[in-house]
Amino acid sequence: MKKMDGKEEFLDFLLETGALRFGDFILKSGRESPYMVDMGRMSSGSNADRIGAHFAEAIIERIGDAHVIFGPAYKGIPLCVSAAMHLDAMLDHPVHYLFDRKGQKTYADGGTGARGLVCGRIPERGESIVMIDDVITCGQTKIASVHLLQTLQPDANISGLVVAIDRQELDENGEYTAGSFQAREGIPFHSIATASDILEYLKQQKLEEHATKMQAYLNKYGIREVRQ
To answer: Which tens digits make up the pLDDT trace of 115-152?
Structure first.
């Protein structure tokens, strides 16, 4: 059996909260998936606190520092707020949150300027920005977020993207989604856990039906490392 290096506790947490589910789901990409990762299922304050702690620990371990945590609306909003709260207590400088609006704010300090596109701290030059989200599937949301941050701060220092789960899938062009995002945008990619971690977890828990369906899905859409 593959060692999971403590990721069982994280996956236990996702299952307990319903953020990780098994069944039949249609993804944004149009693919039929036997599993779904949806942080929007977390609704209690304690769960928001716990997921923020997981992201904060991952950011410290993989990236090392951050001044602004960006989460795309809507599911990224509680993630970036909670992660920023934890990091603010862990680092020796203030850590802020930032998220986008679904529509341009046209009143008060909004108008047609950058402030009307977001809520939270607009990064200053040189500040480290970390993007976070629940998953990366097709990568389009992440690319749009990069462009938004570069609009807000032309010299944006985006230190990395951290997601809860890397689905380890190929895109419609046969390229590894996370890898192509990293290569195209020049932004390091990290995940707290991966699809292969979930598969190993299912095997260890002897959930053979779910494991069989997930392996079949990965054989069809997954990167070479997760195929049988």
So the answer is: 778 999 999 999 999 999 999 877 788 999 999 999 99
Domain carrying residue 145: 7-226
CATH of the domain at 167: 3.40.50.2020
Q: Is position 163 within any domain? A: yes
Report the alpha-carbon distance of residue 217 to residue 99 in Å, rounded.
32
pLDDT in tens, 1-20: 465 667 999 999 999 999 99
Give the residues across from 75 on adjacent strands: none
DSSP at 123: P
Total structural domains within the chain: 1
Among candidate residues 138, 200, 135, the one with its CA nearest the CA of residue 161: 135
Q: Are 31 and 210 a contacting pair, CB within 8 Å? A: no
Query: How many Å apart are CA 79 and CA 192, to the nearest integer?
Result: 13
* Unique residue bearing structure tokens 């039929």: 32
Whole-prediction pTM? 0.92
